[in-house]
Specification:
two-stranded antiparallel ribbon, 5 helices, 2 domains, Diaminopimelate Epimerase, Chain A, domain 1, alpha+beta
């Protein structure tokens, strides 16, 4: 026998009595918070294992501080995620929704391709047209939701040293920042967030967890950097593993996959459209002739829930 369905009476939530309910005190606390309007719902989603806690603040309510975002993202005492995504009303009238991104350490990120696909799926399921715009700190992202996959135009690849940004003028096609770790020169790309791409013989053997945090905080990157280790299988297939700034090793990184393809094309190693295989699965990426990068892949629901009051302390 499952739990009885809740019903409403005069705007209040009521759960009928049932022998299945064995925690009356917890139930009373939950109902008290719910009926007082303190319940903060979330949706857990992932793109190829890159996972997100998504909060909708378009009608007001809870907006996490960096410390609260870090707490919610915690894998042992929080919900657990690589990034927390806050949905807001967009400032740009061309967009349907705005997304703000918090890394697992509470810092902010300007862009996230996997999160953009998850938000696109949520909006489509809420009645959005198949194609619409998402506002991000990196600019407007054009999303297209199909039957089997979701495509997002992640905007232009930025290649100038000031756009990465770097602390000083340097050649972003050959940046010698890893020679102390026996790494080849990196290619730097910004996809609304900074990336350093290293082409290695075998990405499977790359010491991502050791090398990633060293490169992330290199003084040449005033905002830190995401770090990709890429091996080229052929002109249309890349293998990539990633260390994400502010998070660590993740199963996938959409902007990282975009940066990897752009870097490979700049080096003459790949065609402008290729499959990028990540630890969590494959993305199709294309560097368009207009300079924008289009990414295509899945977005998957995990579960939904409500944050406990402890997660909401010191609300900003």
């Amino acid at each position: 026998m499952g739990l009885p369905s809740p019903r409403r009476a005069r705007g209040r939530l009521i759960i009928p009595s049932s022998p299945c309910i064995r925690f009356p005190k917890l139930a009373r606390v939950f109902l008290s918070l719910y009926n007082r309007g303190m319940r903060v719902s979330f949706i857990k989603m992932h793109g190829l294992g890159n996972d997100f806690v998504i909060l909708d603040a378009r009608r007001g309510g809870f907006r996490p501080s960096p410390e609260q975002a870090r707490r919610i993202a915690g894998r042992r005492r929080g919900v657990g995620c690589d990034q927390l995504i806050l949905l807001e009303a967009p400032a740009n009238p061309a967009a349907r929704v705005a997304m703000r991104i918090f890394n697992a350490d509470g810092s902010r990120a300007g862009a996230c391709g996997n999160a953009a696909r998850c938000v696109a799926r949520l909006e489509r399921e809420s009645g959005a047209p198949a194609a619409f715009m998402i506002e991000s700190d990196a600019g407007l992202l054009a999303a297209e939701v199909g039957d089997d996959a979701i495509a997002v135009d992640m905007g232009p690849a930025r290649l100038d040293w000031k756009e990465i940004p770097l602390a000083r003028a340097a050649d972003t096609l050959n940046l010698d920042i890893g020679k102390d770790q026996d790494l080849p020169p990196a290619v730097c790309v910004s996809m609304g967030n900074p990336h350093a791409v290293f082409f290695v013989e075998d990405a499977e053997k790359a010491e991502v967890a050791r090398l990633g945090p060293l490169i992330e905080v290199h003084p040449l990157f005033p905002e830190g950097v995401n770090v990709e280790f890429v091996s080229v299988r052929d002109g249309t297939h890349l293998r990539m593993r990633v260390w994400e700034r502010g998070t660590g090793v993740t199963q996938a990184c959409g902007t990282g996959a975009c940066a990897a393809l752009v870097a490979a094309v700049r080096r003459g190693l790949a065609r402008r459209r290729a499959e990028v295989m990540l630890d969590g699965g494959a993305l199709m990426v294309e560097w368009l002739e207009n300079g924008h990068v289009r990414m295509e892949g899945p977005a998957t629901h995990s579960f939904a829930g409500a944050l406990a009051p402890e997660m909401l302390e010191d609300a900003s």
